[in-house]
Amino acid sequence: MKLTLNPVLAGAGAAVAMLLPALALAADEKPKLDTGDTAWMLTSTALVLMMTIPGLALFYGGMVRKKNVLATFMQSFAVTCLVSVLWLIVGYSLAFTPGSTIIGGLSKVFLKGLTLDSVHELAKTIPETVYICFQLTFAIITPALIAGAFAERMKFSAMMWFMGLWSLIVYAPVAHWVWGGGFLGEWGVLDYAGGTVVHINAGVAGLVCALVIGKRKGFGTENLAPYNLVYSVIGASLLWVGWFGFNAGSAVGASSNAGMAMAVTQFAAAAAALSWMFAEWVTRGKPSVLGIISGAVAGLVAITPASGFVTPMGSLVIGLVAGVVCFWGATGLKKAMGYDDSLDAFGVHGVGGFVGAILTGVFAVEVIGGEGKKGLVDGNAAQVLTQLWGTLVVVAWCAIATFVILKIIDALIGLRVTTEEEIEGLDINLHGETVH
After folding, report:
1. For residues 280 and 286, what is the distance between their CA atoms, to the nearest angstrom?
2. Segment 3-14 mean pLDDT
3. What is the predicted pLDDT for the residue at 380?
4. What is the pTM of this model?
5. Band of the pLDDT at 370, cuts 50, 70, 90?
6. SS3 annotation, 162-192
7. CA-based nearest residue to 42, from 142, 137, 124
8. Which long-range contacts (CB under 8 A, 24 or more apart) does 400-405 make?
9. DSSP string covering 137-149, please?
10. Which partner for 345 in 24, 148, 199, 379 could form a disulfide, CB atoms 3.0-4.6 Å apart?
11. Dihedral in degrees, nearest 10, Cα atoms 4, 5, 6, 10
12. C-alpha to C-alpha distance for 425 and 218, rounded to whole angstroms
């Protein structure tokens, strides 16, 4: 009996020994939170939130007239609050949970089921709470950017309705299409940090807003000069610093990809600031402060979709091109079309986003961003066409949906303040406060 038992025990022991590595491997496959990644993403989230408040608020607030400064600051702050609540209720679920290729599901409505241990499939080394907040900061700044197009003339009530509806009907689906498992991602459209989702989306919406709501009183005949460009320089500087969270944070970890994204972001911003400055210097005789800061923002916009896919030399070219093209977009194109995009939301973000999206296809390098990216190889002309199709789909949906939302709001409560209110200023009429 003893002789027959030993082989059995020995066989069982061998089987257990063989199973142990497999069990260890299975344990390793479970998501493991990384403290370094988590720390970087907490930092990135704070940086991107800083881009809207106070960055964008200062940037836009300094460019309007004194009688509308508080109203412009209020727009950025109120949008931050409104979109945060909507993101908790349903926005995050629509953008980043499994559903169809068109829209996400409702499994995370009111962030149902969220725990301390929750992780998202797209960010397995950080808590899902951090990923939710990081993506929220993108959802906040996108509609806030639109406000630059209709500055100084939209009702606050209409602005709130528009921003809330737009964030759910336009932003959330487009974010899902590109990042959340939707059809644009399946097509192979490259958008590392939001050139299409954020900037083309906001820029096109801004253009539609400017066309629908009409020009400011005195546009083209009165002096509509900025109130305080010092505010705008501070705001642009905060945007630049915050953009490292925007682009390098989109690596979703403290990695070499984040380092490259940070480097190319810096070079593109600097190159675009200089190319805008020199373009203005040559055509208008003087390099302006407003010009150089607008150029920097244009470069940041253009490198956003490319930041995880290009080399520093690619970013240099993208920045140089973006500065010149966006200068034309904010001057020549606007004059030719005759619209009043108050703070050049379309000229900088729409045009810059388009330039960046297309040039991503030109300069994307497989060794940097190729892992898991459908069809991405060096010098792939097909990628340029993919980028073009992706941008056109977003432009079409954004333009149509934005137009419909605006028309519905206009029919129900009206979009624009009265002539008397606009002349006197939005600060005192909409908020009962003034800057002295």
Report:
1. 7
2. 46
3. 74
4. 0.91
5. low
6. HHHHHHHHHHHHHHHHHCCCCHHHHHCCCCC
7. 137
8. 401/166, 401/169, 401/170, 402/166, 402/170, 402/204, 402/205, 402/208, 402/209, 403/208, 403/212, 405/162, 405/165, 405/166, 405/169, 405/170
9. HHHHHHHHHHTTT
10. 148
11. 110
12. 13
Helix, strand or coil, per DSSP, at residue 154? strand
**248 in Cβ contact with 308 (< 8 Å):** no
Both structure tokens of 299:
């470069």
- Taking a C-beta distance cutoff of 8 angstroms, is the pair 327, 295 a contact? yes
Note whether 281 and 295 are within 8 A (CB): no
DSSP state of 193: S
> 158 — phi, psi (to 5°)?
-65, -40
Was domain 32-427 assigned CATH 1.10.3430.10?
yes
What number of residues does the chain have?
A: 436
pLDDT confidence of residue 381: 83
Burial of 60 (0-12, 13-18, 19+ CB in 10 A): buried
Can you give 376-414 as a three-state secondary structure string?
Answer: CCCCCHHHHHHHHHHHHHHHHHHHHHHHHHHHHHHHHCC
Q: Would you say 410 and 162 are in contact if contact means Cβ atoms under 8 Å apart?
A: no
In 28-144, DSSP assigns E strands to none
Bridge partner residues of 123 (DSSP)? 120
For 207, the token pair is 């253009």
Cα–Cα distance, 331 to 312 (Å, whole number): 29
Q: What angle do helix axes 229-247 and 289-303 make, rounded to 10 degrees?
A: 10
